[in-house]
UniProtKB/TrEMBL annotation:
<protein>
    <submittedName>
        <fullName>Putative NAD-dependent epimerase/dehydratase family protein</fullName>
    </submittedName>
</protein>
<dbReference type="InterPro" id="IPR011669">
    <property type="entry name" value="DgcN-like"/>
</dbReference>
<dbReference type="Pfam" id="PF17396">
    <property type="entry name" value="DUF1611_N"/>
</dbReference>
<dbReference type="InterPro" id="IPR027417">
    <property type="entry name" value="P-loop_NTPase"/>
</dbReference>
<feature type="domain" description="D-glutamate N-acetyltransferase-like N-terminal">
    <location>
        <begin position="57"/>
        <end position="136"/>
    </location>
</feature>
<feature type="domain" description="D-glutamate N-acetyltransferase-like C-terminal">
    <location>
        <begin position="142"/>
        <end position="335"/>
    </location>
</feature>
<dbReference type="Pfam" id="PF07755">
    <property type="entry name" value="DUF1611"/>
</dbReference>
<dbReference type="InterPro" id="IPR035402">
    <property type="entry name" value="DgcN-like_N"/>
</dbReference>
<dbReference type="InterPro" id="IPR035086">
    <property type="entry name" value="DgcN-like_C"/>
</dbReference>
């Protein structure tokens, strides 16, 4: 039997599930955001988790690959989004074990599964699938800056891994609940796994970033909204390039700034401080006006998962008054979130 090596960005439309989520050796929740995202937005497709010494957990049952296969799992989904998107040598024995237990492997990392000899050889011997999500389509154009029809919202952030995907998904759902014609546009591996399609923006060559975003959110009916998943932060020394290309190419009419209260330094770069919300609004609007002079900020999305309800509500109310914009946690929802949604749609 021959292994099947899938490298199309729409491979998620035919992903084998249920999933066993693999957490690798992650010690920070931010680097396991793929696992958390799939758990939260496609939890009915997950049976458990396993790792090689990770200290974070999704809360799903811990299983060996053989146990997961017996429970119905059909693939290991690599739930780690580490620096550089690499398949760590320490993971390979466990991933080989998963193949031998009868599971395919799904990855959103930059390293392709097929390029790891042990995985490629084992998959070929057993007829298992190695499925890479983080592969952009061929033939992407350069950006044109041409004004497109339809409306667009982009989630932007003060930092990485603090809720841009969750915010975009929550807003897209809320728009649909109000009868708005809307599409969620996935720009990262986890979003693509959830949505069943999209373009992995951080795998696109920089010259084609803006063009890829234009392809992702094409001309549409005047009342149609594309809610675009954000990537990185304009302030992050490592990831600002993808953020700027996405901002120019998605040409948003509205941005929503995502922020985690209490986070003081940039993810993975402790020598760099997280910018203020005001700085983030100002810079995104300044750069965004290049392709959409009418761009505006619709509000702020807080990730208050580390706070209790009373603390979160008090902080969001105070920050809303200070900033003069709606501030809400898209996961907690409630009246504050309703105000955020209405301000984005006005």
């Amino acid at each position: 039997m021959n292994a099947i090596f899938d490298v199309a960005p729409d491979a998620s439309a035919r992903l084998p599930y249920p999933y066993l989520l693999f957490l690798g050796d992650a010690v920070e929740a931010g680097f396991a955001k793929t696992a958390f995202g799939v758990r939260d937005w496609a939890g009915d497709k997950c049976v458990g988790e396993f790792s090689v010494g990770a200290t974070v957990t999704t809360g799903l049952p811990v299983m060996t690959p053989a146990e997961a296969y017996a429970e119905g799992a059909r693939a290991v989904l690599i739930g780690v989004a580490n620096r550089g998107g690499v398949i760590a040598p320490a993971w390979i024995a466990s991933l080989v074990e998963a193949l031998e237990a009868g599971l395919d492997i799904i990855s959103g990392l930059h390293n392709r599964l097929v390029d790891v000899p042990e995985l490629a050889q084992t998959a070929a011997r057993l007829g298992r699938r190695l499925i890479d999500i983080r592969v952009p389509p061929a033939g992407l154009p350069i950006g044109t800056g041409r004004k497109r029809t339809g409306k667009r919202l982009l989630a932007v952030g003060t930092d990485c891994a603090l809720g841009k995907k969750y915010t975009a998904l929550s807003l897209a759902n809320a728009f649909a609940e109000r009868g708005v014609d809307v599409d969620f546009r996935a720009t990262g591996q986890t979003g693509i796994m959830i949505a069943g399609g999209g373009i992995p923006m951080d795998a696109v060559v920089s010259d084609f970033e803006a063009g890829a975003a234009e392809v992702l959110s094409p001309d549409a009916a005047p009342d149609h909204w594309d809610v675009v998943e954000g990537q990185g932060s304009l302030f992050h020394p490592a990831y600002a390039a993808v953020s700027l290309g996405l901002l120019h190419g998605s040409q948003p009419d509205v941005i929503v700034v995502c922020h985690e209260p209490g986070r003081e330094t940039m993810l993975g770069l402790p020598d760099f401080k997280v910018p203020s919300i005001e700085e983030t609004i100002e810079l995104n609007l300044l750069m965004g006006r290049r392709t959409n002079p009418a761009i505006r900020c619709g509000g702020i999305a807080f990730n208050t998962s580390a706070m209790n309800a009373a603390e979160a509500e008090a902080l969001m109310e105070a920050e809303s008054k200070r900033l003069g914009l709606p501030v809400a946690d898209p996961i907690r929802r409630g009246p504050a979130f309703d105000r955020l949604v209405e301000n984005c749609l006005k």
